[in-house]
Amino acid sequence: MNSLETQTAGPVTETAGHRVPTDLPQSIRHYIDGEFVDSTDGETFDVIDPVTNATYIQAASGKAADVDRAVAAARRAFVEGPWPRMLPRERSRVLHRIADLVETRGDRLAELESFDSGLPITQALGQARRAAENFRFFADLIVAQADDVYKVPGRQVNYVNRKPIGVAGLITPWNTPFMLESWKLAPAIAAGNTVVLKPAEFTPLSAGLWAGIFEEAGLPQGVFNLVNGFGEQAGDALVKHPEVPLISFTGESATGQLIFANAAPHLKGLSMELGGKSPAIVFADADLEAAVNATIFGVFSLNGERCTAGSRILVQREFYDEFVERYAAQAKRVKVGLPHEKSTEVGALVHPEHYEKVMSYVELGKTEGRLVAGGGRPEGFESGNFVAPTVFADVPPTARIFQEEIFGPVVAITPFDTEEEALALANDTRYGLAAYVWTNDLKRSHNFAQAVDAGMVWLNSNNVRDLRTPFGGVKASGLGHEGGYRSLDFYTDQQAVHINLGEVHNPVFGKAD
Ligand code: NAD
User: Fold this and answer.
1) Fold of 279-459
2) Which CDD domains match (predicted)?
3) What is the distance in A from the centroid of ligand 1 to the CA of 251?
4) Active-site hit among 113, 181, 201, 273
5) Per-residue pLDDT for 15 more than 70?
6) 273 CB less than 6 Å from ligand 1?
């Protein structure tokens, strides 16, 4: 059986109003060398749905032996298969077909993703569209790709020969699983590599859909391999595998540090997209309504499980009270609901462990700031991982809820007086992923953007991505930037080839007399 979609329904628990997708697979398996397979040792782990927290399926639990099989298949496809040697135009056609298939299956994909992760269905649909767009973007980029040529008149022509590297190990988190997988799969494959994907253990359901999509689009066997399992087992084996020269990782900063150390003996290429505690800075001359709407969306969309969430809002004192009042009132109106309902704005957090972590910060926040909205379970949701959109005001920069990534629908608001103070507050965390600046002062907006410690800055805007721009963080938020041609740089070797056009350019040693 080659596609998850054709398998039949597994055991699930229904609760009031909760919708379970039809035709769920019976189990989640690895996909190695064109086949769905179980773990070598037969082990599985429980996967739960975040509305009921009931186990709805078993997933194959990958270990080193499974990673070995997947890497061997990927290596064979790289060394012997057609993919790395195909013309960019041919690879591009396959990638466009993948994008078409992702688009036509968007509804199914979003349904599975929303069920498995607790993301609101409308937002899961948006992420499915983004996944298709990622493939389209890299399909176009590899055809348009130009490489450098340098001339030394009369002496040399030197050019860059771009080559795929080999087997890329892709390790992804659970917050927007399918979209983040596409963010790595598309450039890795576009550049001619083969891959082993290790998706997050909390949300393995949608990753299996790639297999059917890739097969139908004509991706050769062995180019894409998938190993499910825990980070400390399957992920760790991938990081330490000697035949995987590249690891692209998105996840927590602490995990990134560990992976860095584990990859060091092999001198692997690493791309690290890590955690964040991004500030939204609102100056008194900003458009108040736009700033409130955007900063509400910025921290409560994707259930607040968003790496670039603007989870610290710094507000200039002149309209601090008005801002806090409007913000709290609006946060209370944000609609928490079942993930499959179209009107839901905040769904269920991914897993009870994560729910406990977020709730512990909510309790801590009550001792560190002034609670002005939320602060616990939303009314009417006595079970499942639901958290009311929670707002703390007057949060000092020393507070843990100001410093630490919560990764849930919880925001800290802090006042400032001057631009200098705002910048100091904005930079006063270990993270540096994104920053959002709200002001109508042109000079200030640019000066602030350039001074803030953040890999990405938006002026008078939410996180709206232009796929050509660099994506990544500074400080503890990551190392290396992907996005646009930088992703292709990461997934390729740029070999310098030098051609002599003139006299051979060296003194003659050992010359005969
Ligand atoms: P995580 O670090 O716990 O796990 C991420 C992935 O790494 C999972 O697949 C996990 O199984 C694997 N893993 C865990 N330990 C490993 C090990 N020792 N070796 C190899 N792999 C291992 O992160 P998470 O909880 O799944 O995701 C949330 C985090 O991801 C947040 O910190 C968030 O900010 C971050 N994130 C960052 C970005 C970004 O682009 N910067 C985007 C999304 C999420």
Assistant:
1) Aldehyde Dehydrogenase; Chain A, domain 2 (3.40.309)
2) ALDH_F8_HMSADH (cd07093)
3) 2
4) 273
5) no
6) yes
Collapsed DSSP state (helix, strand, coil) of residue 56: strand
**CATH number listed for the domain at residues 4-18+29-274+473-496:** 3.40.605.10
**How are beta strands 156-164 and 149-152 bridged, if at all?**
antiparallel
* Domain positions in the chain: 4-18+29-274+473-496, 279-459
Tokens of 201: 């253990």
Enter the tokens of residue 269.
């290429």
| Span from the CA of 175 to the centroid of ligand 1 (angstroms) | 9
Long-range contact set of residues 22-26: C-beta below 8 Å, sequence gap at least 24: 24/56, 24/57, 24/112, 25/57, 25/208, 26/57
Q: What is the pLDDT of residue 9?
A: 40
503 tagged catalytic:
no
Q: What span, in angstroms and rounded, lies between the C-alpha atoms of 85 and 164?
A: 9
What single-letter amino acid sits at 326?
A: R
- Is pLDDT at 26 greater than 70 in this prediction? yes
CA of 302 to the centre of ligand 1 (A): 16
- Nearest to residue 412, comparing CAs of 421, 403, 423, 420? 403
Express each pLDDT in 449-484 by its tens digit: 999 999 999 999 999 999 999 999 999 999 999 999
Task: Pick the closest to residue 223 from 366, 113, 394, 73 (CA basis).
Answer: 73
Q: Ligand 1 test: best mutation among 307, 350, 358, 467, most atoms within 8 Å of CB?
A: 307
* HSE value, Cβ hemisphere, 13 Å, CA-based, for 346: 30
User: Are 162 and 111 in contact, with CB atoms under 8 Å apart?
Assistant: no
> Which residues, at least 6 apart from 508, have a Cβ–Cβ distance to it below 8 Å?
none
Q: From the CB of residue 420, how many other CB atoms can be counted at a distance below 10 Å?
A: 10
Structure tokens at 81: 């298969």
Task: Please name which of 149, 127, 144 lies closest in space to residue 190, comparing C-alpha atoms.
Answer: 144
